[in-house]
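User: quick one, fold this
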Amino acid sequence: MEATVMMRYDRVPHCLVTILMLSCMLCAGGCGAGSANDQLSDDAWLSGESGERSASSLRASIQSVMNDPMEDSQRAMLKRALDNGGEISHADYLSAWNNYKQCMVYKGYTEPPLQTVNGVVINLVHFNFSGVSEEQQMKFHHDFGACFDRNVMYVESAYRDARANPELYRDLDVAMVDCLRRHELVPVEYTVAQYRKESDAFTNMTFDGEQLTQQQAYARRRKAYSFDFDNPQVRTCVVGINPNAIADEIEEWKPFG
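Assistant:
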């Protein structure tokens, strides 16, 4: 049995949403022409969508979770970030992920693989549960959630937000288009509606009758986007906001060996 899981949550101030283990979606990002900086005050690109934010600033976002249950090591990292304008250091980011890995190994599982894009961990896990009983899987999901939540979840979210969604948009499609616009990767007239249309095409593209490998199909599907999916900054937007778009790049993890 296999499952691809996104290790993240949509943060709401003062509320912890526990990771649920059996979810799978797809979305993405890419290139364009023109300067978005000239029109950042113009909200036409929202196409009528909500520009609601989860917090007023990166510091406020971190402050809202400081009293939630977590290991002292993660709380200390967040405190350091509060003294640094809401920015998690790369050293603390890597340390938090390492603490999560050690937690899983301590509980008796194989070491979780961590893949990165431009220094940002791809927050997805492709589990392989072949030959594993339901009871073992249930215990694993409990352990996995506990290790992730208590050791890295808040640090991971704050680090990712600072690099891809500093405006803290709640709607991930809005956050993606904002990221693409801020880095001038799409034309100024590129809208959330257009992005959603392209994302739907990416997700629903089929190849009936064609003998394509998974990677060949993935390469074809990425062409649904009107921007350059291979652009390094585009990939930072994708991994920081909705890494499900690069799920086909994730290596398999057999936590039971």
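User: anything notable?
Assistant: The longest strand covers residues 2-6.
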